[in-house]
Design brief:
The protein has two helices and no strands. It has 128 residues and is mainly α. The longest helix has 84 residues, at 41-124. The radius of gyration is 36 Å and the shape is elongated.
Length: 128
């Protein structure tokens, strides 16, 4: 059965102007290279807030794109897990039947052993 399954994977790729943005970001960040003094403390805090906002936007973009690319992976995993579950359900049904059969066989053996023991005790004159 498994030899019939066909799976083709295509690696995700990201295309963007990362290098261009990196160069512009490096140039823009030079404006933030300041020495903090009592006179510019308020401005320094505002600059730190701006940088935090910018990094938050970049991180949000990263998460959105990773989620977008991960959607087919999750779908694939769910489909394969369904197939695995079908196999495991069938396996469990067989194991349940095996247990019932083995329990019945053990019960038969126990009855035979009790009967044999009873006959031997009777021959030997042993009472309960």
């Amino acid at each position: 059965m498994i030899e019939n399954i066909q799976i083709r994977a295509t690696l995700p790729t990201f295309q963007g102007n990362f290098e261009e943005v990196k160069i512009k970001l490096s140039e823009g960040l030079k404006l933030y290279e300041i020495g903090v003094t009592a006179d510019n403390l308020k401005d320094a805090n505002a600059m730190a807030t701006e940088l935090n906002k910018l990094s938050g936007e970049l991180d949000k973009l990263r998460k959105e794109k990773v989620k977008e690319v991960s959607a087919p992976i999750k779908e694939f995993e769910d489909k394969v897990k369904e197939l695995v579950g079908m196999c495991q359900d069938s396996r469990q049904k067989i194991l349940e039947q095996v247990k019932v059969f083995e329990d019945e066989e053990r019960a038969k053996c126990l009855e035979l052993l009790k009967k044999e023991a009873s006959e031997i005790w009777e021959k030997l004159g042993i009472r309960e």
